[in-house]
Amino acid sequence: MFHPDAPTGPVLGLFLSGPSLRLAESAARAVVERTLDHHDSLSEVLLVSCEAVLPTPYFEWLLERPDDGGRLMPPAD
């Protein structure tokens, strides 16, 4: 997802999962840096930061659901 008109400048959103937050952020940085290095049209783009935003409100919403207590799948038999 790309937001070119964000108040602080363009924002690129990546959806990654990994064994840790640090590894997911590292993978995101590597993907973006490789993209910037290999596309001439992006040669003037500068990566300012690379950080994850945890989707806390989504998980809080799941836990508040009265029907299944946050489970996404039915329990195993």
Which stretches are low in confidence, meaning pLDDT under 50 for 5 or more residues running? none
Gyration radius, in Å: 17 Å
The whole-number mean of residue pLDDT values reads: 81
Count the DSSP helices: 2
Distance between the ends: 39 Å
Structural class comes to mainly alpha
Order of helices and strands: EEHH
Biggest sheet character: 2 strands, antiparallel
Instruction: Kindly report the spatial arrangement of strands forming the biggest sheet.
Output: 1-2
Silhouette: elongated
- The total of beta strands comes to 2
The percentage helix is: 25-40%
Proportion in β-strands: 5-15%
Structure description:
The protein contains two helices and two strands; from the N terminus they run ββαα. The mean pLDDT is 81. Strands 1-2 form a two-stranded antiparallel ribbon. It has 77 residues and is mainly alpha-helical.
